[in-house]
Amino acid sequence: MKASGKIGFEKALVGERGKAAFLFSFGIALCIFGLTRDSLQGILSGLWRILVEPDYLISDYMDVGGMGAAFINSGLLTVIFTSILVFLRVHIRGISIAAVFTVAGFSFFGKNLLNVWFIMAGVWLYARSRKEPFLNYVYVAFFSTALAPLVSQLMFGFHFPPYLRIVLGAAAGVSAGFLLPPLATSFLSVHHGFNLYNMGFTAGMVGTLYVSVFRSHGFITASRVIWSTGHNGLLWPLCAAFFLFLAAAGLLLGGLSQGGLRELWKHPGRLIADFVDLYDFPATLMNMGLTGLAATAYLRLSGGDFNGPTLGGLLTIAGFSAMGKTPRNIVPILLGVVLGSITKDWSLTDPAIQLAALFGTTLAPIAGEFGAAAGVLAGYIHSSVVLNVGVLHAGFNLYNNGFAGGLVAAILVPLIEAFRRREKR
Question: pLDDT at position 10, please?
Fold first, then answer.
């Protein structure tokens, strides 16, 4: 009776309610931690500053509103977006975890409680125009919030009359959200699933279109970097403990049973690789923890900063470890960036390069499919491309590495395949 009771309890934890509870608990934990970092008045004041900040890259919310407000912003959005999945009765899968963790991560530097809803509304309108349920586009809507800074910049970054700023910001957000769903499907064929952040590639194209219109009318945003430091002593042990907890929880729930984790690590990770569907939740949870630990170790050893943007990178890596990333396929990408630091004119501690390394793991499927050497080459090339494509969308696309990764994969993968075919002759 005791054994059967334990099995029943474990099944409940890995079932639909258990996975939803995991996402809710994650969001609540972010909120609780935020409440310990500032007074309620300080948090509310910080949240207001976050809401009215033009959020184009790079805007570290820990600097803009304080650590407490940044964690509360992320936690609340995590809980709200998880609630949307539960309300729509969505089956919680790997892509669900990737979507929620990506929202949580970017809510530390670009997405907030105001600007995401206009993009979401645009996707909802697209679904209505197609006479299809919003359920069919819910993940597109979540990832489409990459263009949320477009809303904030128009509402709070230009010197227009208030009513005009609100109208322009809302119109831009809704229209961008409306355009993204059909384009996302089309652009997937460009990189053939070797760029995990497909919406980043799509949003980069749409963002370039909007910025081109802005610039042609004389509205030019100056580049900037809002980047906080001094949090490593608190945040890196916190990140390590969180990812260790995920790995341990997955192990206790049976992540190693029937070779689940071992088989998962053999998967190349190419889209769409839903690890929860393929290998079950415990093995996926272990992979999330171990991949997150590997990324945390890289950031720590390279002398990087633990702040809003890099925390966003770590959480996004963990989220996509439910849908494509493993320690086996991200390490070659990271090594490629390290190699770039030796031969190129920048340092691993430069803010843009720290993000290039973490978010550059969008190209992990290249290493998974073609081997470590190809992964190192992809990381090396990506570290150059990502520094030059942001000017096209002026930082309005939060998934800039997804944009750059799509370009790298579109060029590199056909060349690798061509040489492989030649060698096999």
Answer: 53
Distance CA 100, CA 91 (A): 13
- pLDDT digit string (tens) for 138-189? 999 999 999 999 999 999 988 889 999 999 999 999 999 999 999 998 998 8
| Residue 423 scores a pLDDT above 80 | no
* First CA to last CA distance, the chain: 61
Name 226's bridge partners: 59
Q: What is the pLDDT of residues 181-237, one digit of tens each?
A: 999 989 988 999 999 999 999 999 999 999 999 888 887 677 889 999 999 999 999
Tell me the C-alpha distance between 364 and 316, whole Å: 13
Name residue, tokens 């892509």: 95
* pLDDT tens readout for residues 37-96: 999 999 999 999 999 998 889 999 999 999 999 999 999 999 999 999 999 999 999 999
pLDDT of amino acid 7: 46
Nearest-angstrom CA–CA distance, 251 and 261: 10
> Which pTM value belongs to this model?
0.95
- Token pair, residue 240, equals 């390590």
Identity of the amino acid at 407: L
Three-state SS annotation for the chain: CHHHHHHHHHHHHHCHHHHHHHHHHHHHHHHHHHHCCCCHHHHHHHHHHHHCCCCCCCECHHHHCCHHHHHHHHHHHHHHHHHHHHHCCCCCCHHHHHHHHHHHHHCCCCCCCCCHHHHHHHHHHHHHHCCCCHHHHHHHHHHHHHHHHHHHHHHHCCCCCHHHHHHHHHHHHHHHHHHHHHHHHHHHHHHCCCCCCHHHHHHHHHHHHHHHHHHHCCCCCCCCCECCCCCHHHHHHHHHHHHHHHHHHHHHCCCCHHHHHHHHHHCCCCCCCCHHHHHCHHHHHHHHHHHHHHHHHHHHHCCCCCCHHHHHHHHHHHHHCCCCCCHHHHHHHHHHHHHHHHHCCCCCCCHHHHHHHHHHHHHHHHHHHHCHHHHHHHHHHHHHHHHHHHHHHCCCCCCHHHHHHHHHHHHHHHHHHHHHHHHHC
Our CA angle for 266, 272, 273, nearest 5°, is 30
The dihedrals phi and psi of 397, each to the nearest 5 degrees, come to -95, 110
